[in-house]
Fold this sequence. Notes:
The structure is a homotrimer.
Chain A (H helix, E strand, L loop, with lengths): L1 E9 L4 E4 L1 H11 L4 E7 L4 E7 L3 H14 L16 H10 L3 E7 L2 E2 L5 E7 L6 E10 L1
Antiparallel strand pairs in A: 1-8, 2-7, 3-5, 3-8, 4-7, 5-6
Amino acid sequence: xxxxxxxxxxxxxxxxxxxxxxxxxxxxxxxxxxxxxxxxxxxxxxxxxxxxxxxxxxxxxxxxxxxxxxxxxxxxxxxxxxxxxxxxxxxxxxxxxxxxxxxxxxxxxxxxxxxxxxxxxxxxxxxxxxxxxxxxxx
Amino acid sequence: xxxxxxxxxxxxxxxxxxxxxxxxxxxxxxxxxxxxxxxxxxxxxxxxxxxxxxxxxxxxxxxxxxxxxxxxxxxxxxxxxxxxxxxxxxxxxxxxxxxxxxxxxxxxxxxxxxxxxxxxxxxxxxxxxxxxxxxxxx
Amino acid sequence: xxxxxxxxxxxxxxxxxxxxxxxxxxxxxxxxxxxxxxxxxxxxxxxxxxxxxxxxxxxxxxxxxxxxxxxxxxxxxxxxxxxxxxxxxxxxxxxxxxxxxxxxxxxxxxxxxxxxxxxxxxxxxxxxxxxxxxxxxx
Lengths: 138, 138, 138
C-alpha cells in the first residue's frame, strides 16, 4: 500500500517546530500497520531533524551551536540575495536532513522515548513550508 | 513484502561500531531479492553513518574531527543534565544520520567495496542501543 | 512495484554535479505514478545533497564553507593514504548524505521550485561514481 499525505507548516522564523504529531496523524490516516514513513521537506532553507524532545534547552543549544558554526553575514559567503541569513540557511539545510525514513510498527511510528521530529526553519523571517509524508506499508 | 527486524547493540562508550553484518543478516532473513532496507536508530545521542571500512584510522580521524568541532563541556551549551558529553552527543547525532536507506539487489545490500555501516555512539559511557531494519521488497 | 535503476557519473574532480534529470529519467522508466525514490551513492568520498538550483554561487559558497570547515591537509588527520584530500573527503561525506528518499506524485519527483539533487565529489581528482535509484511505487 502506497499513501501520500501533505503537510503545511507556517513558521514564525528561525527555530525548531515539533511536527511529530502531524506526521503521526498522517501515518494513522494511511492505515498502515507495518511499513515505512518517509518525511520530505520541499525546501533548501528549512530542514528536518530528529532531536531530544524533553528539555527545550537542547534545541536552544543546538541553535546556538549552528549559529556559531555558520554565522549569518559571514564574509565567506558571496550569495546574499535574500539577506545575511540566506546562505547560512542553505548550509544548515545541507548539514541536516531533507528526508527522514521512520519505521512503522503496530500502526505507529517507531520513535524512542526521547525522540521528536522537528522542522528546522533556518530563515529569520516567517515562511510557509510544505512537507510530504510517504507511507509504504500493509 | 514488508519485513521488520530489530537489533540491539551494546556499546562500550563513544566510538563507531560496525553493524554491516547484523543488518545484512536481517536483510537475508527478510528473503527480499530486490528492494530497500531502511535502518533506523531510536536514539538522539547515537547515530548512523556510512564510512570507509578498510583503515580504522579513518574512523579515529573522524572521531578526532568531531571532538574538535563539538567539544565536550563547551561553555556554549547550557543543557548538561547528563554531563559534559550530553549536549555534544545530541549535536553529533543531528549532524549525522538517524535513518539510512540502502538498496537491495540479488538479495544483498548494494554496498560499495569500501562502504561499511556504523552505529556511532556519542556518549562516553556504555549504552544499549535499539535499531530497526525495515525491508520493503519482493 | 519495485524498480532499480543504475547511474554512473564521471566527475571532473571536486564540486557539485546536478543529477536531478538523470534521477527523474529513471523514475519515469519505473512507470511509478505514486511512491518513493531512494537515491544511493556507493562511495565514502562522494555524497548526495539537495540544494538550491537557481544561483550557482550557492554551491560555490557551500564548497568554500566546507573547505574551511574540513581543510585539506589538516594536521589532525593521520589517514592520508590517498593524499591531503583523502580524509576530508570522508568527513564531508559523513556530514552530508549517502542516501536520500524523495516522494513521487503523478509520476514525478516531488521537488520544490528551487530544489536540485546533486552528487558532491569531494576528491580533487576525477572519479567514476556509481549510484542506485530504488523506486517503490504503483
